C-alpha cells in the first residue's frame, strides 16, 4: 500500500513496452511480461524495481482514468495457474493470481470490478 502513496512511483516513465521491459534487464533474474493496454483503457505509464517478501520484483505502473495501478510481477514456483483472489487492505483493492509461470499482484484505489477486469487483460 505504501507504493501507492510514495513519491517514487517509477524508475522509467514510458508508455512504450519496448522501453519499459529492457529497464529490468540485468536487474532481475527473470524477464517480466510487459504489455500496454491503452486500447482497453489501462495504459502502461512506466515501471520500477521493488521488493516484496525480501525478493526483487518488477512493478509495472498503469493508469485507469485518475487511478494508479501497481502491478507486481515475479516468478511462480511452477507453471500452474491460481484464480484471481481479491482483498481490500487499508482502503486499497488488491487482486492476486498466478499464470504462465508468474505471480501477479495488482494494487490500486480503483474499484474492485475494474481491477478484476485489468487482471483478466494481463493474463487471460
Task: Describe what you observe in this structure.
With 124 residues, the protein is α+β, with helices and mostly antiparallel strands. The protein has one domain (2-122): Phosphorylase Kinase, domain 1. The protein has helices at residues 2-5, 17-20, 112-122, and strands spanning 12-13, 44-52, 55-64, 67-75, 82-89, 92-99, 102-108. A seven-stranded antiparallel β-sheet has the order 1-2-3-4-7-6-5. The longest helix is centred in the last third of the chain and has 11 residues, at 112-122. The model has no long low-confidence stretch (mean pLDDT 87).
Q: Taking all residues together, what is the mean pLDDT? A: 87
What oligomeric arrangement do these chains adopt? single chain
Structural class: alpha+beta
Order of helices and strands: HEHEEEEEEH
What is the distance, rounded to the nearest whole angstrom, between the alpha carbons of the first and last residues?
25 Å
Named CATH topology: Phosphorylase Kinase, domain 1
Spell out the blueprint of helices and strands.
Blueprint: H1 2-5, E1 12-13, H2 17-20, E2 44-52, E3 55-64, E4 67-75, E5 82-89, E6 92-99, E7 102-108, H3 112-122
Antiparallel strand pairs: 1-2, 2-3, 3-4, 4-7, 5-6, 6-7
Amino acid at each position: 500500500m505504501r507504493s501507492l502513496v510514495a513519491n517514487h512511483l517509477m524508475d522509467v516513465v514510458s508508455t512504450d513496452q519496448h522501453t519499459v521491459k529492457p529497464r529490468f534487464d540485468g536487474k532481475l533474474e527473470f524477464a517480466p511480461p510487459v504489455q500496454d493496454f491503452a486500447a482497453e483503457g489501462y495504459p502502461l505509464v512506466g515501471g520500477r524495481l521493488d521488493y516484496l517478501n525480501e525478493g526483487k520484483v518488477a512493478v509495472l505502473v498503469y493508469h485507469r482514468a485518475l487511478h494508479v495501478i501497481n502491478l507486481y510481477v515475479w516468478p511462480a514456483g511452477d507453471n500452474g495457474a491460481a484464480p484471481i483472489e481479491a482483498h481490500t487492505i487499508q482502503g486499497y483493492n488488491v487482486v492476486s493470481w498466478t499464470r504462465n509461470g508468474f505471480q501477479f499482484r495488482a494494487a490500486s484505489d480503483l474499484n474492485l470490478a475494474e481491477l478484476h477486469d485489468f487482471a483478466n487483460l494481463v493474463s487471460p
